[in-house]
Amino acid sequence: MAVPKVTDQVISAEDNGFRGSGIYDIALVWKSAGRDYKVVPNDFCFGSHPSFFVVTGPNQGGKTTFARSVGQAVYFSLMGLPANAALFITPLFKGISTHFEAEEKIQSNSGKLKEEIDRLAPMMKQDNRCNFVILNELFTTATTNDALVMGKKVMAHFLGMDCYGIYVTHIQELAEETENIISLVAQVEDNSPDMERTYRIVHMEAQGYGYTEPLVRKFQLRYEDIIKKVGD
Prior knowledge:
This protein is of the alpha/beta class. The protein is 30% helix and 22% strand. Strands 6-7-8-4-9-10 form a 6-stranded mixed sheet, sandwiched between helices.
């Protein structure tokens, strides 16, 4: 655990931005206690002005875990407590705003997308200026184009409120880098036939593919597998 260094909301270039190294998810550490499981820490650096990390990569690759770990460190710093990192430099945020995927309520009869928007709308109407924002897998039931348009508008709203944030998504186009958008990608082993997850989150261009081959092979859904099953 590290004592956070809290800076002014506008970070100076000398501080190398809002950043952390060796950051880890406390819930994962607790869950892994007593098991033969190594928790992988990560590093990050936002820069000297409000921006969003857009995190893409394979399912179960550590994207949401990374978002949680940064959110935890911000939360602890707001309480004046040591952060879950080897080093943590942060602005003095006013608070934290989060939107994580929730299970659809069948009795609501409104659909998952409507429920997401209903939960997101109050969050966007509040005075969230200078908050830290985490958005996890928004608009998953919308078309890709609709999710892209809405995702850009949501990030633009919070950036207009001088918020830093993390947006976890499978929409590769949301990760196109601008002055305020930074693309992070969850890594896999290049030489692993099953694309083994490394749980490392690095700054790089979104990869543009869906990591589906290992799943197709695992569940025997390749063309030749289906032909064989039909033949049997």
